[in-house]
Each structure stands twice: as C-alpha cells, then as structure tokens.
Amino acid sequence: MKHISQKHGQYINKYYSRTGILWEGRYKSSAVSTDRYLVACSRYIEMNCVRAGIVKGPEEYDFGSYRAKVGLKKIKWLDYDPIYLDLGKTEEERHKKYQKWIRESIPKGEWDMVRKSIQRNWAYGDEQFKGKMENILGRRFELKRAGRRPKKI
Fold first, then answer.
1. For an engineered disulfide with 122, which of 23, 61, 113, 117 has Cβ 3.0 to 4.6 Å away?
2. Taking CA 47 as the corner, what is the angle to CA 18 and CA 44, rounded to the nearest 5 degrees?
3. pLDDT tens-digit map of 46-66
4. Number of separate domains in the chain
5. Could you tell me if residue 23 is inside a domain?
6. For residue 113, which of 100, 127, 132, 103 has the smallest C-alpha distance?
7. Interatomic CA distance for residues 102 and 43, integer angstroms
8. Can you give the pLDDT at residue 37?
9. Domain that holds residue 108
10. In the prediction, which pLDDT does 128 show?
11. Of 145, 126, 141, 146, nearest to 35 (Cα)?
C-alpha cells in the first residue's frame, strides 16, 4: 500500500503541477470478522462523508458505494461483500434493506470500536475472532497505559 500510495501521489502531483503529500496519513488496516462487524464497518465508511459535513446524506456523495448499493447508480467494477448479497434474493430487496439498515440508529459505541480497531490495527469482531487473531499474530489487542512500567520495589 505504501508503494501504491507513493506512486499515485507522484502521478497526481506531476499531472496537476502540485507538490506535497496527497494523503493525510498512512494506510491502516485491520482484520474484520465476517458478520455484523463487517456490516458495521460498511456503515462507518458509508457515513464518513456525512460525519465530515461534506454532504447531508450518503446518497449525495459520488465517491462511495452507497449509491450503487441502494440502486441509484451502477458501478460495474464494485465487489459486493457476502453480507450485502445476503440481504435479499433480488437487487431491489437488497437496495431497500441496505438503505433501511444504514439509516437505523447506530448502536452505542459501534463507531468508537471501529475507529479504535482501525487506528490500532486491531482485529474487529467477537471475542473468539479476536482471540484467534491474537494467536495468529502473536500479540494482544488491549489498551495499555502509556510509558514505561513502574519499577517493582
């Protein structure tokens, strides 16, 4: 991702005769369990433009997948995740259910947990999934106090 980001930034700078960084921060990723956690991440991403005050609703934003997932726009290359595809047997049924789901109230703490997982590169899912990922990666996903451990006396 660093290489892709760097090359893309160089291309854009050359094309538009500009200088400086293109992206605000480095690329971040985290493993996500495939169930309600993946859908929570989708809602978080779809609503970023609204939280940032760019648009009033996700249907007004041209650079996301929301418009395609509710039937307002066709995007041939869009890869629909299995959770979205399971929302209904027909496109129309999926469109309606996705739109309703995005507009539902967001459970308390959902956005904070998604944000924390991304910022810290933590796995996002249930305890079993997190435990499995901790074993694979050989590290724990937990908040620790900043600084050195106090000396034992």
1. 117
2. 100
3. 888 988 899 999 999 999 999
4. 1
5. no
6. 127
7. 6
8. 74
9. 33-119
10. 82
11. 126
